[in-house]
Specification:
Blueprint: H1 2-8, E1 18-19, H2 21-30, E2 35-39, H3 43-48, E3 50-51, E4 55-56, H4 62-69, E5 75-79, H5 83-95, E6 100-104, H6 107-113, E7 118-120, E8 123-124
Parallel strand pairs: 1-6, 2-4, 2-5, 5-6
Antiparallel strand pairs: 3-7, 7-8
Length: 125
């Protein structure tokens, strides 16, 4: 039955350098778990509210931490306070050898505006 359901819903679009929250949500809903969502804001902001399933890697720690945590072929979505900051971080990751990096445009604010679930501290909203 599950295989028939996947035939009904179209496969999500391929990953782009800049992604809309709807693109990421479609991948998550489709069941493509081979991706990582990274919030590069500071931990206090992360704890206040973040995209469901995101991990915290503040920008100051990003390169050091990611190289020991994720393989270079991993699909990575990242976001920050501003798209500009996220674009800069994505450029740094690509320069370090990560091939599949996408900026989640609008970050957690866009995620909330689309009425998708966010986590706050330990709660899901």
């Amino acid at each position: 039955m599950a295989n028939r359901l996947f035939g009904i819903f179209p496969k999500p679009a391929a990953m782009q350098e800049m992604s809309r929250v709807y693109d990421l949500k479609a991948r998550l809903d489709w069941g493509e778990p081979a991706l990582t969502i990274i919030d590069i804001r500071d931990r206090q902001m992360f704890n206040e509210s973040h995209v469901m399933g995101a991990i915290s890697m503040p920008i100051a720690e990003l390169l050091r931490r990611i190289q020991s945590a994720l393989e270079y072929e991993r699909d990575i979505y990242l976001y920050s306070h501003t798209d500009e900051e996220a674009v800069e971080a994505a450029s740094q990751l690509r320069a370090a050898g990560y091939k599949k990096v996408s900026v989640l445009r609008g970050g957690v604010a866009a995620w909330k505006a689309a009425d998708f679930q966010v986590e706050t501290g330990m709660a899901i909203v």
